[in-house]
Protein 1
Amino acid sequence: MADIDFPADLPLPQREGYGLEHVSPLLRTELASGRARQRRRFTSVPTTVSVSWVLSEVEAQLFEGWFRYAISDGAAWFNVTIKTPVGLKPYVARFAGMYDGPDLLGIGHWRISAELEIRERQTVDSSYVIHLPNFILYQSIFDQAMNREWPAD
């Protein structure tokens, strides 16, 4: 984990425009025969996340101050809670560049958009994928059975 946290009082990113994009871990070599050979080049690659926040005036002031002073204009890694297919969890991230905005929305709200780079690609543990794939597919049923349908003593 990083030493710096995203301000806890700021809201989570908006769903509009939210998306993840993985860097390819593969190396592909085209052969003269027309076939291709490929292999995994890296085991750890970053993921880019497109995010945007709608902030009040005071929240926008906090965000811009935090960006400038706490993470050195976006250069430092920080801890932030974001949603991925694994769930809403804290990840180590940094800004991939300068954010866009703030753009005025209505009378007193501002939209700030940015690209975040997550240090590790988010996946479930390999032992679940290899040995217990149904646990992943039916985890909500398992959760309900354990927490709602468990017989009383």
Protein 2
Amino acid sequence: MKTAVALPIRWLLWTGLAGLWAAGCATAPPKVELPASLDIPRNVELTDVPFHPQDQYQCGPASLAMTLEWSGVAVTPEQLKPQVYTASRQGSLPPDMIGAARRHGRVAYPVHRLEYILKEVAGGHPVIVLQRLSSFMQTTWHYAVVIGYDLDRREIVLHSGVKKREVLSFDAFAETWRPWSRWAILTLSPNKLPVTAEAGVYLKAVVGLEQTQRWGEAETAYATAAARWPHHPTVWIGLGNSRYARGNLNGAEQAFRSAVRAAPEAGPAYNNLAHILMELNRKEEALNVIHQAIRLGGPLADVFRKTLAEIQQHPGG
């Protein structure tokens, strides 16, 4: 199997998508006001989400096991514990939760608004949330899984701790979640899109699969994204990158050509296409394509010229 190509693919993905994630287990709460346009069923409860009661300090492994198992991954909290639990913190850190989801081939997609959580649940997707639970004696960070809601009763339903069905008012839930972190994630199979999917946020999440070398799942996720956002060049760049990493040069060529069609001004797309054509021993085509990248110029002009030199030195026909 080929390794990932060292091209501006990475540059194009990261420069456009960086900075989208945040790090992150008395008085009456503010009243939650949901948008009047919230078009979802009045009440939903996902009964197909497994429940794992947590051991002490193990809300992270338990919550992640629930959503991963729901998504089709056979895994237990005990198996996840060494991947996400930090003994010195007596808990699980959000980056470790995200990393473990990726290593299991799932797209870890962030959700930062209560109405988006409700929309995802209405779409059949359980949501892991990080709450700040305060009492007179202490404050505790806690992971739980949102599995339902009732708009008329203004209630949210969670798998939480040792409770299979914890019911909180919207206001009480918001008091534990919204002011402190607004941290929540989906762990979706790569052939599914979030109900609330935004292109940039989703593609950033898929890059995480590349980082963990889950190229098959990354390819599936990019193909899924391409069906939703066919005119987004980064989708096709990512798809080409994944196919190249799996040794599928012809598929990578098709993806990079789609990137060029989606963004004729995108020099990196031409550059990457030229590399693929070179490896396919289509030197003349590769030269024509890289000259187009050089004509476009931009901050990667030196990279394009280096690619030109490599193609010129390539023995292919």
